[in-house]
Design goal:
Thiol Ester Dehydrase, Chain A; alpha+beta; 6-stranded antiparallel sheet
């Protein structure tokens, strides 16, 4: 699958999520690139004031929710729609961020029966400026007939 096809698959997988409790579904985030071969997708988000904690960092609730949503979307797209359960999700805000910062949420996933993904929240124009990270481990549900 080429990168353009995979980008469309990731975006359509996210859009098709039936659950309406996903806060991330309400964010103005969108897929800017994806690679099946590299097992990654990049999602762009501009930080709103409400997404910054009192400490001046990305709100860790936002980080956890966005990481869960987008890494799950990536894992679903990579595994042809197979369902998985979260077994672990960790988040860490790393440094202060300003309102209006354009972020790239870079999600990568391994190829395993117990998928593991990492979401890095970096400045879109300087990816060495990392504001938060999250790790997400899942477990594939057994297939039923």
């Amino acid at each position: 699958m080429d990168d353009d096809e995979f980008k469309l698959l990731v975006a359509s997988t996210a859009k098709a999520k039936e659950s309406h409790y996903y806060y991330s579904g309400d964010l103005s985030a969108h897929v800017v690139s994806a690679s099946f071969a590299q097992r990654l997708c990049v999602v762009e988000l501009t930080v709103a004031e409400s997404e910054i904690s009192d400490a001046g960092c990305l709100d860790e609730g936002l980080v956890g929710t966005a990481a869960d949503y987008w890494t799950s979307t990536l894992i679903t797209a990579l595994s042809q729609g197979r369902s998985a359960l979260t077994t672990s999700l960790t988040v860490q805000a790393l440094k202060p961020i300003a309102k209006g910062t354009k972020l790239h949420i870079v999600c990568t996933a391994n190829d395993s029966l117990q998928p593991h993904a990492v979401a890095t929240f970096a400045c879109a124009s300087d990816t060495s400026a990392v504001y938060a990270v999250a790790t997400h481990t899942k477990y594939f549900k057994p297939r039923t007939k």
